[in-house]
Design goal:
By secondary structure, the chain is α/β, with parallel strands linked by helices. It has two domains: about 70 residues, Glutaredoxin (3-Layer(aba) Sandwich); about 160 residues, Glutathione S-transferase Yfyf (Class Pi), Chain A, domain 2, CATH 1.20.1050. Helix content is about 60%, strand content about 10%. The protein contains ten helices and five strands. A hairpin with a 2-residue loop joins strand 3 and strand 4. The longest helix has about 30 residues. It is globular and about 50 Å long. About 35% of the residues are buried.
Length: about 250
């Protein structure tokens, strides 16, 4: 059987969601790390859209982390990420959607705004976007940084006002994690589910857990992290990584 192939950005929290699902299920797979910007022709050719992650699975192509998890649940049901109980499953899927829509997109916008505000943004951009791609890719990102910055500010609507709004959304998502936590330590029922995986994967840039599978140069977030204080949600993310982020066999 041909191994699944995942096209991704190493630093992307949505890609991390898909990687974690593959690893949680113990699925040997191939990863193809792409250089942002240069990824468009490959990803459009594969999937007819421009975003990663994209997974080739059993002869078909699946785009979007939520669709990837759904496909993996059908293809490899165990260990399950969807709760068996119908009510718990509905709750887990609702939380997955909440964190996708109310956290993932806004955290990306907020972190981009932080990075783009840096005086030495070209260096930081190269460290993040070209991580793992070598010196030539790093030099290319540095050279193209002013154009890339303008494009991404347009593409993701990054302004001072939208960044402040995004910051509020991130704080609200941390509140939601803390409100939803069950006595078991999980968001739904008494076991790890798609709800936990989604929230923890999307929040990894705030925590930078040691079990994250790639070197992770991040925008300057120290001041924001200090402002967050000793929040239970951040400890919970680190604990989900510690307990459940075991790697699967990967050919890169």
């Amino acid at each position: 059987m041909t191994r699944p192939v995942l096209w991704h950005f190493t630093f992307s929290h949505f890609a991390e969601k898909a990687r974690w699902a593959l690893d949680w299920k113990g699925i040997p797979h191939v990863r193809r790390a792409l250089l942002p910007g240069a990824h468009y022709p490959r990803v459009w050719w594969l999937s007819g859209q421009g975003m990663v992650p994209v997974l080739r699975l059993d002869g078909r192509v699946v785009a979007d982390s939520t669709a990837i998890i759904a496909a993996l649940e059908h293809w490899r049901p165990e260990p399950a990420l969807y709760p068996r109980d119908a009510a718990e499953r509905r709750r887990a899927l609702a939380l997955e959607e909440f964190f996708d829509e109310e956290l993932g997109h806004y955290l990306r916008r907020f972190f981009m705004a932080l990075g783009f505000a840096e005086p030495d943004g070209a260096r930081l951009g190269a460290a993040v976007f070209a991580s793992g791609h070598g010196a030539a890719a790093s030099a290319t990102v540095r050279l193209g940084y002013p154009l890339m910055r303008r494009f991404l500010c347009w593409r993701f609507d990054i302004t001072a006002a939208s960044a402040a709004f995004a910051r509020g959304k991130v704080l609200a998502a941390l509140d939601r994690v803390e409100a939803e936590l069950q006595p078991s330590g999980y968001l739904v029922g008494d076991r790890f589910s798609v709800a936990d995986l989604t929230a923890a994967a999307l929040l990894w840039p705030l925590v930078d857990p040691p079990d994250f599978p790639y070197p992770a140069p991040l925008p300057p977030t120290a001041a924001f992290r200090r402002a967050l204080g000793d929040r239970p949600a951040l400890h919970w993310v680190a604990e989900m990584y510690r307990r459940h982020r075991a790697p699967a066999p990967v050919a890169t």
